[in-house]
């Protein structure tokens, strides 16, 4: 089976074109593909399926021809992936499956509109982030209070006093399973200037990654809240680059680079 590899600020994905949904994409296969030693290696898989043939999202078929079937590296499903959506859009255009410019895609979190800019960046409209309250993450013996933000998938974005670069994110941070029964993506960030933050993330179903798009939006929401704001544009520096998040009254946008780097033939699925 044919695959491609791409990334958005080094949040990397294996793309599997499977328009008619013929592949049995079970969790063990996803985990084998994402294995960085025995597989191709990635933070997740983006299966490209026709929306109308995907029972989970067929109600979105009137608005979006293609469904981003996103899976985490451990094989679990997630509702939404911001960087994945940007890489998925890049693939659709390069494969001739979508016209350059603006178009919609289906996700488990609902329809998302994307736009490919002339500068090479890809933007995705992320919808209105929903703030659900506050909770606490435990990292390296410290507790950090943060904001529970719902972007289709769950986030806990915590401002911290220490530089995030010093954190040990080699282990699952503690969180309250009563608040997050399906797990949570945990962002830790330092404000470093006017509307600029440095962020690290421990993703549900993956571990520490070099970027997370939905996490960047959650972080911008939490950073804005520190100064009583709900709108504006934030630069979110992650280990893999810089993302731009724009918060508006009724929606939000995530922008940054999204590139394809390789294509090949996958024998694992055969
Ligand atoms: N890296 C993604 C988020 C992927 C899903 C997440 N791990 C979850 O389980 O919710 C992004 O760029 O948003």
UniProtKB/TrEMBL annotation:
Query: Pathway it belongs to?
Result: Amino-acid biosynthesis; L-lysine biosynthesis via DAP pathway; DL-2,6-diaminopimelate from LL-2,6-diaminopimelate: step 1/1
InterPro entries (UniProt xref): DAP_epimerase_AS, DAP_epimerase_DapF
Residues annotated as catalytic: 81 (proton donor), 81, 212 (proton acceptor)
Entry's Pfam families?
DAP_epimerase
Q: What keywords appear on the UniProt entry?
A: Amino-acid biosynthesis, Cytoplasm, Isomerase, Lysine biosynthesis
Report any one BP term from Gene Ontology. Answer: lysine biosynthetic process via diaminopimelate
Compartments, record wording: Cytoplasm
Q: What class of enzyme is it?
A: isomerase
Per the record, what are the reactions this protein catalyses? (2S,6S)-2,6-diaminopimelate = meso-2,6-diaminopimelate
Assigned EC number: 5.1.1.7
The UniProt site entry described as Could be important to modulate the pK values of the two catalytic cysteine residues is assigned to 155, 203
Kindly list the GO CC terms recorded for this protein.
Answer: cytosol
Q: Name one GO molecular function term.
A: diaminopimelate epimerase activity
Annotated substrate binding lies at 11, 72, 82-83, 153, 185, 203-204, 213-214
Q: Its quaternary structure?
A: Homodimer.
The family annotation for this protein states:
Belongs to the diaminopimelate epimerase family.
Q: What does this protein do?
A: Catalyzes the stereoinversion of LL-2,6-diaminopimelate (L,L-DAP) to meso-diaminopimelate (meso-DAP), a precursor of L-lysine and an essential component of the bacterial peptidoglycan.
Record protein name field = Diaminopimelate epimerase
Q: Which organism is it from?
A: Nonomuraea cavernae
């Amino acid at each position: 089976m044919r695959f491609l590899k791409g990334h958005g600020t080094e949040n990397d994905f294996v793309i599997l074109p499977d328009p008619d949904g013929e592949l049995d994409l079970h969790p063990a296969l996803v985990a084998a593909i994402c294995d960085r030693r025995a597989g191709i290696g990635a933070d997740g898989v983006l299966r490209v399926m026709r929306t109308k043939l995907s029972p989970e999202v067929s109600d979105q078929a009137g608005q979006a021809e293609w469904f981003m079937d996103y899976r985490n590296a451990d094989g679990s499903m997630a509702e939404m992936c911001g960087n994945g959506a940007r890489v998925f859009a890049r693939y659709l255009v390069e494969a001739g499956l979508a016209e350059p410019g603006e178009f919609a895609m289906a996700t488990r979190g609902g329809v998302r509109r994307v736009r490919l800019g002339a500068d090479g960046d890809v933007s995705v409209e992320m919808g209105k982030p929903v703030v659900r309250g506050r909770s606490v993450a435990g990292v390296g013996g410290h507790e950090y209070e943060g904001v529970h933000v719902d972007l289709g998938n769950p986030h806990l974005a915590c401002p911290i006093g220490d530089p995030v670069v010093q954190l040990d994110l080699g282990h699952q941070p503690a969180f309250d399973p009563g608040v997050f029964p399906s797990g949570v993506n945990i962002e830790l960030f330092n404000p470093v200037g006017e509307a600029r933050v440095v962020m690290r993330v421990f993703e549900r179903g993956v571990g520490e990654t070099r970027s997370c798009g939905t996490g960047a939006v959650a972080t911008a929401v939490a950073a804005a809240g520190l100064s009583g704001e709900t709108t504006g544009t934030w630069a979110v520096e992650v280990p893999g680059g810089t993302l731009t998040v724009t918060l508006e009254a009724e929606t939000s946008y995530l922008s940054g680079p999204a590139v394809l780097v390789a294509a090949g033939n996958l024998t694992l699925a055969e």
